[in-house]
Design brief:
Distance between the termini: 76 Å
Number of domains: 2
Number of helices: 12
Number of strands: 12
Helix content: 25-40%
Strand order of the largest sheet: 9-10-11-12
Radius of gyration: 25 Å
Structural class: alpha+beta
Largest sheet: 4 strands, mixed
């Protein structure tokens, strides 16, 4: 290329967040950025109007506003980890190590953290470490929602229950410590976490997670989400999606027949039994436990569950 020839415009993926400076370097004029082909995410940060929705767009855009070294934290880090979280946590959260690195923008919440705060990269984005994220979300989530996060992080092998608890203890984060004490290995879904939390917060014995039944030749026969193996009781969340799956329906019928033949009590729980009538779910579980002679069922259930599972008859 001749020394007098202007440089080629930089290649820019406009379906990912980019800055005004990057756009100009790629040959996109400021006037074009103001047109219908692009939308502004934050001041000086844009995205092509046709870019498919992605929770990471807001996170990446918020980081582009900040100097290098900033990282996604709190609800933003949760979006990067793909952690299930309640609706309504719309703001992006960016943590920085120095006051001068804060950037005030509508829709962005800044946090100044200690230099020793652990940061990792997930999906190419700098974020809080799993333990740090768990402690951060304790500021935003309820006990049950935080237990859901913990079970999810463990399922995705981001941390072990012991590592989460140790991190929370080291930080002296009491709300996070309490939630971490309920995190278990092998939990398959958020609804399973919610059902287990409903049971234990009512003072009922804690069910085993993912108890497995094997055939005589050592092959897996069945795995139960929640159960009391010594009492032969299965308590499981039954998702609505099973109703549309004929193969799953046949499997469930066969499984139910096996449970009956082998002397197991099956307590299925549906969404209404968690979100609308948790009191009836607790009554059914307590009844099954008493029927099998469990001596750990309190005469009067604890009331702690009511703060997280409102009754809506």
């Amino acid at each position: 290329m001749s020394p007098h020839q202007p440089p080629e415009p930089a290649v820019l993926d406009v379906r990912r967040p980019f800055t005004r400076a990057q756009a100009v370097a790629a040959g996109i004029s400021p006037a074009a950025l103001r047109g219908p082909s692009y939308r502004r995410l934050f001041t000086t940060v844009y995205l092509h109007a046709d870019a498919p929705p992605d929770p990471l767009h807001g996170v990446v855009a918020a980081l582009l506003v900040h100097p290098p070294g900033a990282f996604a934290s709190h609800a933003s880090a949760a979006r990067v980890y793909d952690v299930p979280q309640p609706a309504g946590l719309a703001d992006e959260h960016v943590s920085v190590f120095d006051q001068k690195d804060r950037r005030r923008r509508d829709g962005i919440r800044n946090h100044i953290v200690a230099p020793t705060t652990p940061v990792v990269r997930i999906r190419g984005v700098p974020v809080s470490s799993p333990g740090q994220l768990f402690v951060e979300l304790a500021e935003q989530l309820s006990l049950v929602d935080l237990a859901v996060v913990g079970d999810f992080l463990v399922k995705r092998t981001r941390a072990t229950p012991e590592e989460l608890l140790a991190f929370c203890v080291e930080r002296g984060a009491r709300a996070a410590i309490r939630a971490a004490s309920y995190v278990r290995l092998g939990v398959d879904s958020p609804m399973e976490t919610r059902l287990r939390m409903l049971i234990v917060l009512a003072g009922l014995p804690e069910p085993a997670v993912n108890f497995a039944i094997f055939r005589e030749d050592g092959r897996l026969r069945y795995r139960f989400d929640l159960s009391y193996p010594d009492l032969r009781i299965v308590v499981e969340y039954d998702g609505r999606q099973h109703r549309a799956d004929l193969a799953q329906w046949d499997h469930d019928v066969e499984r139910g027949e096996w449970l009956d033949d082998d002397g197991w009590l099956h307590v299925p729980v549906f969404s209404w039994g968690i979100y609308r009538q948790p009191d009836k779910t607790l009554a059914r579980v307590a009844k099954a436990l008493r029927a099998r002679g469990c001596r750990e069922v309190p005469v009067r259930l604890a009331e702690d569950w009511r703060a997280y599972f409102p009754v809506r008859h």
